[in-house]
Amino acid sequence: MSEFLSLDAQVEVRGFDVQLELRPDEIVALVGPNGAGKSTLLNVIAGALRPSTGTVTFRGDELSGPGGHVPPHRRHFSLVAQQALLFPHLDVLDNVAFGPRSRGMAKGPARDRALRELGSTAVAELADRRTNQLSGGQAQRVSIARALAIDPDVLLLDEPFAALDVSVTPELRRLLRERLRGQAALITTHDLLDVVTLADRMIVIESGRIVTDGPVAEVCAAPNTPFLAEFVGVNLLTGTAVGSETVQIGTQAVVGIGGPLTLGAGARATIPPNAVALHLTQPEGSPRNALHGSVALIESRGSLVAVTVGIEGQRLRADLTPGAVAELGLVPGLPVIASIKATQIQLHPA
User: Fold this and answer.
1) Cα–Cα dist 285/279, whole Å
2) I want to staple 110 with a disulfide (CB 3.0 to 4.6 A). Which of 54, 105, 161, 239 is the partner?
3) pLDDT for 122-141, tens place per residue?
4) What is the DSSP annotation of 43-63?
């Protein structure tokens, strides 16, 4: 068991069963589909939700478990939600000072502490404003300052940028990264930029279970579920290794690099969408990978068009120019051949 934060907890009515350990100096990004259990995990750690079975321990002390349940206000953790949820009857300074004061600090020192934290999130000039005078971005900075003012042992952030205008998110993300150095934090997000700019470690949760846990670069380089592959922006095909660099996908074979694979074992192939070319007839040059399928979906994505092709019951996305889509006359149901260079396909054990 971890000497810092350790969780082995189940919430039966939500199908939640998670085992997790957190170190005192790491920032962990938690991603997963809607309803996967991300917010449930934060609430179990924060104490807002008591697990039906299992335990939550912190530095060896049981917070939730057979021995009882420590309520949220007695845990030295801070939870920041999507909405700022500031106290409307207090100005900004006293909102941030509320935490230190509730823990016994005198009014003057608590306000000094609050002002320093407002400075760290670049909103010290708003100290005397009422909360209804703040923009969404300003309110969320104040909310983060309030959470940090108690020097929490663990900071829990539930999609902290989800309700913000895209124009203010990059600066707040940068400020938060600087402020969180050396701080244990768990952040739920639907944005890959949050993961790569804020986190050291990445956890993927699906259907109430952790399916992937590791350093950000490693998890992004080898996605092991369709959700994760889509999240990081690559295609994922799964099958069986029939050679050290070949994966059988249904009746078709995919040749790539990476591996080596174990003959007969499960294997994965990850492919960037911009590496996929589509053809109506067998392409010239006999490429090593020419996969037969049919167009399933066509979507506009800015200056490109995402064309999803169904292949052996799986999906492969190609990012094409509008001109290429028009020239090929692509429509849903049309048979096509997807060609990919072997050097553009990364193979991994399942």
Assistant:
1) 13
2) 105
3) 899 999 999 999 988 889 88
4) HHHHTSS--SEEEEEETTEEE
